[in-house]
Request: fold
Amino acid sequence: MREPPEKWGRAFILTAAVLFLGWSGLAPAMGAASPSTQMVNIETARPADAYIAGYAMAIILREFNLKGVTLTVEGGNVILITGGHRGDAIRRVAAAVFKLPSVRSVSIRERLALGPKPRGRPEPDRISWSRPIKRGKFTIHLREDVSGAAALALKILSSPGADSRDRIYRMAKKKLSGIDGLTLVAVEESIFTRDSGTASAPPEEEPKKVVRVKSPDTGSRFFPKGDLFKPLIADPRWPHFSVVYQSYIDDQVRSVENKFVSTAIAVSFGETLPIYRQQLSPDFAWEIGFHAAVFGLFDLEGESFDLINTDFWVAPIAIGIRLGNITSLFRFYHQSSHLGDEFILRDPNISEFALRDPAKDRVNLSYWAFNLLLSYDIDENFRVYVGGEHMIDKGGFFFEKDPSDLEEVSVQYGIEYRGLPLSILKWDKLEGRIITGMDIKNQEESDWEANLSIRGGLQFEDPNFPHSQYQIILEYFTGRSPNGQFYKRNVEYFGFGVQGFF
Reply:
C-alpha cells in the first residue's frame, strides 16, 4: 500500500485541477467593461404580449412551480423579476420562455430594496448603466437619480469582479446601501436575444401598454418537480442512476487466485422523490419526500463479472427546507450491505478480506442513522455544504446496529461548481455545462481520517425538462471504501462513467 502522503499528493493535484476547471468555465462570461448610459423606457406593447405573458406564467407555475416571480412583456421583450429566486432555476425559466413564439429577448432582473417604496413607481427606471458582455449585457437600474449613485453604479460595472449577476448584486448591495434618497436598485442580465427579423414586428396602430403578471407568493403541491436540495455531485452514496468503470490503484479486494481486483463496474439504481411541497413565501419553502437506492460493485476480472458487494440504502423520511440561498436536508435512513454470492463461493476464507480477522465471520453491516446537510449558494455557479450524521444505538430488533461496536458519528463537507450552458455543448434541444465537485467525509470509525471524492465532467439537460440531468463524469476517490462490506479497508481508484438524475 502506498503511503498516505503520496495519496494526498495526487489528491492535491486533482483538487487544483478541479478548481481550475471550474473557474475557467467563467471565462466566457467576462468581457471588457465598456459602460454606457442607457435610459430604460417601458412604454410600448402589443396584444401578442398578453399571449406571451400567459404562456410564460404557465411555464413558471406548471413546469417550475416558482412562487412570487413577476414578468413584464413589452414588444416581445420579457423581463423576469426573480422575487427572491436565485441560482439556476430562474435561468432555466428564461431559457424555456425564450422558446415561445414572438419572444424577442429575455432578461433576468433582481431587485434590491434600500428604502420605502414611493407611490406610482413600481420599478427602478429613472437611470440605468449597462455593460455589454459576450452573451448579452449587465445593467444596474436606479429608481432615483441621487447624487453619487450613478458614478458608483458605473464603478461597479467596470470592476474586474463584475462577471455575473450575483456578484454585481452583492457589490451593489454593499456600495449603494448607504446612499440617502436611493430606495430601489435592480441588477438585470440580458441573456437571450433574437434577431429582429425572426420575431414578428408589432403593428404601429397597437395601443401602448405593458403586460405585467405575477405568480402567487405561496402555494402547495403534491409530487412537485425537482428537489429543494440539489443532488451532491461528488457524494459516492447519493441516490441516482449510474454506471461507472473503476480502476483501483491501492489495496483492492483479494480474489481467489491471490490477485487483486484491479477493475470493477460500480452501478447504482435510485432516486429522490419529493412527495409534498409548500411554498410559504418567495424565499421560504419546505418539502417532505422519500430517498432510496441500490449500489452494486462487479468484478470485471471474474469469470462472470462476479457481484462483489451490494448496499441497500433507503430514507423513508427526507425533509428539505429552503430559505433564500440556504438549503437544508434532514434524512432518517437505513443501510444494509451484502456480499455477492459468486464472490463468497469463489473464496472460502471470506472473513480474511471482509474483516482481516479469520476468527470472525463476514460482517453484516446494517444500521439506521440521522443525517443533516446544510448548503449555501455562493452564487448561481458555486455551492458549499456541510453536514453530519449519527447512527442510532438503541438496540432492539428493528434498530439494531451491526456490528455492535461500530462508531456512530461522521461529518461531511464539500464544494461544487455548476457552470452556465455553453454554446459549443448545445446539440438539438440539449444544453451542456461543466460541473465539478469535491466531497470530504470524516468518520469516527476511521479515527477521523478523510475520505476524499472528486468528480468532474459535463452535464446535459433539456430546458423544457430541467429536472432531468445526464452527466458524463471522471472521478477520483481515496479513503475508506464506500462499499459497506469493506468499510474497514482503504482504497484508491479512478473512474469514468455516466449518471442521471430524474
Notes: The helical segments are 4-24, 48-63, 88-98, 149-158, 165-176, 341-345, 350-354. The domain at 222-501 is CATH 2.40.230.10 (Outer membrane phospholipase (ompla); Chain C). The mean pLDDT is 75.
